[in-house]
Design brief:
Distance between the termini: 38 Å
Order of helices and strands: HHHHHHHH
Largest sheet: none
Helix content: over 70%
Shape: globular
Radius of gyration: 20 Å
C-alpha cells in the first residue's frame, strides 16, 4: 500500500469521516429505515469499514436492543470505525440533516395533504418505501447465504419466514432464534464468518 493510500485509509477511520458519511446518509436515504440501512451497508462495505459478515452482526445486535434499532446500529458501526468519537459523530451526522428535512416535509405535508391531487404521489412514495424494504431483505438474505451452505440457509430463512407470519410478536421470534442458535449452532455458523462475500467457501461447504 502506498503512503497516500494509507493516509486516505487512516483518515477514513477518524470521526470526521464518520460524521460526513452519516450526514450524507441522513440527507439522502429517503424511504424509511430500509433505505437508511441499505445506505449504511453500501457505505460500510465501500469504505472498507466492515465486511459483509460484520455488517450483518451490527444488524443482528441492533435488533436485540430496545428502542430505535437504526440508531443502535449507527452506534455499533461508529464504534467499530472510530471508537467513542465515531459513535457520537455517527449519531449527530445521521440525525441532524434528517431531522431538519423531516420537520420541513411535515410542515409541507400539513399544507398539501387535503388537496385532491395529493393522494397519488403519497401512495407512490409508500410503494417506493416498500420496494426499499424488499431490496434490503434480498441483500441481507444473499449475505446470510454466503456464510455457509446455501440449502441450509434457504431452509432456515424459510422456517423463520413462516414463523414470522404465524407469530405476531418480534420478541418471541427473537427468543426462538436465540434458543435455536444455542441448541443447534452448527445450523447458523460455518467457521468462516470472517471472510467477505467475494470469496468462495471451503470445499465441500456447499450443498
Amino acid at each position: 500500500m502506498t503512503g497516500s493510500a494509507h493516509g486516505r485509509q487512516s483518515s477514513d477511520r477518524r470521526w470526521p469521516a464518520v460524521f460526513l458519511a452519516f450526514a450524507k446518509i441522513g440527507a439522502t436515504s429517503f424511504g424509511g429505515g430500509s433505505a437508511t440501512i441499505a445506505a449504511m451497508r453500501r457505505t460500510s462495505l465501500r469504505r472498507g469499514w466492515l465486511t459483509e459478515d460484520e455488517f450483518l452482526d451490527t444488524v443482528v445486535l441492533s435488533r436485540l436492543t430496545p428502542g430505535i434499532t437504526i440508531l443502535a446500529q449507527v452506534l455499533l458501526i461508529g464504534r467499530a470505525v472510530a471508537g467513542t468519537g465515531g459513535m457520537a459523530a455517527g449519531l449527530l451526522g445521521l440525525m441532524a440533516p434528517s431531522i431538519t428535512i423531516t420537520i420541513a416535509l411535515a410542515w409541507g405535508y400539513t399544507r398539501v395533504a387535503d388537496l385532491p391531487g395529493a393522494a397519488g404521489p403519497l401512495a407512490a412514495v409508500a410503494a417506493v418505501a416498500a420496494g426499499f424494504a424488499i431490496a434490503l431483505a434480498l441483500q441481507l438474505v444473499r449475505d446470510v447465504l454466503r456464510r455457509g451452505r446455501v440449502l441450509r440457509g434457504v431452509l432456515c430463512y424459510g422456517a423463520f419466514l413462516v414463523l414470522a407470519l404465524l407469530i405476531d410478536n418480534p420478541l418471541v421470534l427473537m427468543g426462538i432464534a436465540v434458543v435455536a442458535g444455542l441448541v443447534a449452532p452448527q445450523l447458523f455458523t460455518t467457521g468462516h464468518s470472517g471472510q467477505t462475500g467475494d470469496g468462495e467457501g471451503a470445499p465441500g461447504d456447499a450443498d
